[in-house]
Amino acid sequence: MGIKKKKEMQVTALTICHQDLETLRSLADVEGKNLASLLLRCVQLTDGVSQIRYVKQIVPLLEKADKNGACDPAIRSCLDILAGIYLSLSVKNPLKKVLASSLNGLPECFLTEAIQSFTSRLQEELNTTDLYAYRKVTDNISSCMENFDLGKAGVNNLLKNVLHFLQKSLIEISEENRKFAGNHIVQTQLMNDLLVGTRVSVMLVQKIQDFQRIHLKTSSSPTWQSMCGLLSIFTKFLSDDDLLQTIQSTSGLAVILFIKAMFHPPEKIPDLISSLLLRSVDCTSIPDWFLNCCRRLCCTDVSHSTLLFLCQGTLTMLDWQNGNMGLSGEALLLNIVHALFTLSSQIKESTLELFLSRILASWTNSAIHVLESSSPSLKDNLNGNSSIVQRLLEYVYTHWEHPLDALRHQTKIIFRNILQMHRLAKESPGLAADRFICDLAESLLRLEWHVKGKYACLGCLVDYIGIGHILALAKTIPSQILEVMGDQSLVPYASDLLETMFRNHKSHLKSQAVDSTWIDEWHETWVSPLLFILCEGNLDQKSYVIDYYLPKLLNCSPESLSYMVKILQTSADAKTGQQFFPSLGSYNSRGALGALMACLRTARAHGHLQSATDAWRNLVSSARIKQGLIHQHCQVRIDTLGLLCESNRSTEVVSTEEMQWIQFFITYNLNSQSPGVRQQICSLLKKLFCRIQESSQVLYKLEQSRAKHEPENELTKQHPSVSLQQYKNFMSSLCSRLFEALFPGSSYPTRFSALTILGSIAEVFPIPEGQVQTVYQLSHDIDVGRFQTLMECFTSTFEEVKILAFDLLMKLPKTVVQFQDSEKLRGLFEAALELSSSTKPYDCVTASYLLNFLIWQDALPSSLFAYLKTQQAACGDGDKSAIVVERNTLMGLY
């Protein structure tokens, strides 16, 4: 696999108008050391990345300037040009952020002039009347408030103008959007502009400090009038179902935020919003400005989406921490959830359902914040036995298998928060006396295991009360969950729940134990059911348990591998075949030996067998490995081979024992009748060859440096040159066995396997280029006899064999198979021509491969001329025209 080249950063270069360019030229000094000279060199570049380097030099240069330089007209002009540059850049251009970051470090003596420049340039932007330029101005307002002190100061100075611009732009864009009804392309852009304008308005109120005092201003001030105008616009957006729901959602945030900023006294805000949600607004008790701006919200026929997004805005924009809103805030919290419950039974649209689930999850978060310092009355309303919590649970049970994954995720958050709410609201001191939790656990355990939502909720419950209480109610729960892992749709849920449980159990046992005996209980609970499935389970169960559950268990407790091996080896050694589990297995059963190899293979692939050689010596015997390599069950053979070939470290040296076992495996397994098994064998052996190639490169470097490697890396149990020679001997011996398997009359499976493995060898160990060394080259072991063996593969009746043989020849250098004997070359060509006229289809195919091979060898023209001369001589002075036609035809084909 090649290394993916990192994509170079593309930055659009900044430019300035002709007038600013002439100004910089007139201000630049002869030495080229002042700010104008720096900016002039910067703007003359056409590469944005290079310009970044110049932008970063601006502040260091000004820091060297005299502090009285703030009065220098040249610097003032440069600061004005910098403000223009910043506002001209696209919001996505990295130069914009780099410039803002640099100017944040501007020396204090230049700040006043810089702020004036930004204010002046921003004012020019705000005066634009081009509707399609509004988006750029809006983006600039947003950028100015994002970690940019000069920009924020400029916006603050022009607050009245900024508010007026936002109000004007939103009105005009909204009207333009209405005109283009039905033109979805134009409307998409316009609605996106509306969304950005609404978000910038929210950001403005949140980040500009003057809004904290806005209620003190008179209702006739321009700022107040613009605020009222914007509030009216957002109320209209909130109620307009023709707009994108993201616009409605953001407008809901804006409405509540503006009410929070404008309404006085703030203590009455919860009551006001409650009346909106309950549709019980008393128009005589609210200010006229509010009624004028939010009249749509004071009606009794507010749409479902409007009410939903009002709830979202309330939960997001009000301060729920530490009970800051008092009892009226608690009442508002309860009113919100009742409104959400009502909407839940009325809303059927999937996108609104998703919004509702997120808002309900947000409500539970707010409830947790309030409960941390709430009144006893609220705790009574939000403990586990309350009607609100019961309705929340009902919502979870109803939606935890919803088709939308995002909605299912929200039900998990809601359930977890329900437990947290109950903990804060309950008065009972312990879990044993907590009837709500006990009933909840029992009800979940009674559900069928095919209910997917059950798994996530049980995981939350385990985190809350610990696995001990669950095991007390259902001691066999590990086995129950493992039983359902034959169903692919349930496997991810089951494995995640099991991981949550056994990790919780391990932490609990370790914290309570005084010695190491706790691990026996943990093994009995979690490992023994696993081993039973590996030995007795059906094929799907075993596969999914090995792929999903076993790696997680070993990651949690690598030391448990020894326990697994001990139990499984004892079973495999049992003469009766039924001590713990069935012993060696049979054609239809993997048995304990299959389980043992699966565990070892998984452990090694995930890095839990740090030393392969030590693993064989300490965990499993050589005889056991050989039993696995020739087991009757094909998957046991594959797992054993995988144990030898796979490693989490691609440079791990292949040990002498592994090479011996691979040769042993090759002897008995090339003739596998299953195509799937043959493919797996070839794939695993290719991984082994890659390990040999990559580890050999490390060995070559060690040999060259004469350095000794650390023992834990296993590279210097012997001298690198010895390991390299063993590699060469192994590969050479392996190739000999593979070529021996290609004898005339060998079966298709044997030829397929041998040729595929030889092809992998030729691919993994390429012809060295330059100073690169390779430990083995297949071409060095190709003699005339082996070449002839490959050529004879073209006579096979199976085209797949022909293809593999041809591909292998193509991977070899031409010099390896170069013909020296022209007679043999002509004989091969004549054989190809003769086969091409055969009535047997596979003979014609053989001819095509022979001719292709001759073309690749650049041997066809000489063969062709020699053949035509022979034919011409045989014809004598006869009809030479036929010879000419044949010659031209063949040359045309070539």
Automatic annotation (TrEMBL):
<protein>
    <submittedName>
        <fullName>THADA armadillo repeat containing</fullName>
    </submittedName>
</protein>
<feature type="domain" description="tRNA (32-2'-O)-methyltransferase regulator THADA-like TPR repeats region">
    <location>
        <begin position="522"/>
        <end position="802"/>
    </location>
</feature>
<dbReference type="Pfam" id="PF25150">
    <property type="entry name" value="TPR_Trm732"/>
</dbReference>
<dbReference type="InterPro" id="IPR051954">
    <property type="entry name" value="tRNA_methyltransferase_THADA"/>
</dbReference>
<dbReference type="GO" id="GO:0030488">
    <property type="term" value="P:tRNA methylation"/>
</dbReference>
<dbReference type="InterPro" id="IPR016024">
    <property type="entry name" value="ARM-type_fold"/>
</dbReference>
<dbReference type="InterPro" id="IPR056843">
    <property type="entry name" value="THADA-like_TPR"/>
</dbReference>
<dbReference type="GO" id="GO:0005829">
    <property type="term" value="C:cytosol"/>
</dbReference>
